[in-house]
Design goal:
Length: 241
């Protein structure tokens, strides 16, 4: 009974998230460039379009890092493991001293983990926020494939390299496609996570590497995320103690 009460007092909080894509979306690039940034959208086994959880988590972490630094929190340098907590290689003694604060302690570890690592994890600490893939609600049968040709431009010469013609598969323009999934805040998630996540989501106005080509602009619909005055106050370093 005691165990059950502990579970009830500290449940997993689930946020329901929908990305509404306002423009055509880059689905995947063939050709010379094959980085993850060029493939923000892939397909499930049954051919539905999806935004991978890793893509969403990476962008959200990056935005949260910028916001937290702007608010005065000491934040480690992702994504290189040796520059992240708890190692933080290459910091000066003064920079390192900014991580020696009580709220950077975690249970069962005498090393410090910054606010961002306490939410998104690092090689020594599991993530306290679990992300789903965002899956397109539209039946793939209703989505004709659209291919956009592109060429790679040689930066130094300013000319197109004709060997590097590629195609972007995009979703149809202006279809208002909806991609839906959930974010799960674990019971040991720090108090700051909700307000920081909400603020960071509003900074993500596009996904993918091709927004300059007019691909991938989006807006968010967020359900189940209630942020109160205390949550915002907790974002001020020292304000939540
Ligand atoms: Zn960190």
């Amino acid at each position: 009974v005691i165990y059950l009460q502990e579970l009830l007092s500290n449940p997993v909080e689930t946020i329901s998230l929908t990305a509404v894509i306002d423009t055509a979306l880059c689905v995947g690039a063939g050709g010379s460039s094959g980085s993850l940034a060029d493939k923000p959208i892939v397909r499930t086994a049954d051919n539905r379009l999806l935004i991978p959880a890793s893509q969403l988590k990476g962008r959200l972490r990056h935005e949260c890092e910028k916001l937290a630094r702007g608010l005065g929190w000491a934040v480690c340098q992702s994504p290189n493991p040796q520059n992240m907590c708890p190692q933080r290689a290459g910091l000066s003694r003064e920079e390192e001293s900014q991580f020696q604060r009580n709220d950077y302690e975690v249970l069962g570890d005498d090393r410090r983990h910054c606010l961002i690592c306490q939410i998104f994890g690092n090689p020594a600490l599991p993530s306290r926020v679990i992300f789903d893939d965002l899956i397109c609600e539209e039946d793939p049968e209703n989505l004709p494939e659209v291919l956009r040709p592109g060429v790679t431009i040689n930066r130094s010469r300013g000319t197109a390299e004709d060997q590097k013609l590629y195609f972007l598969e995009t979703s149809p323009a202006n279809a208002k496609l909806r991609f839906t999934g959930e974010i799960h805040l674990q019971p040991d998630c720090p108090h700051h996570a909700k307000a920081l996540t909400l603020a960071a989501l509003h900074h993500i106005k596009a996904l993918g590497g091709s927004k300059s080509a007019g691909l991938g602009w989006l807006r968010w619909e967020i359900e189940g995320l209630s942020v109160d005055e205390g949550d915002w106050q907790a974002l001020l370093p020292g304000g939540g103690e």
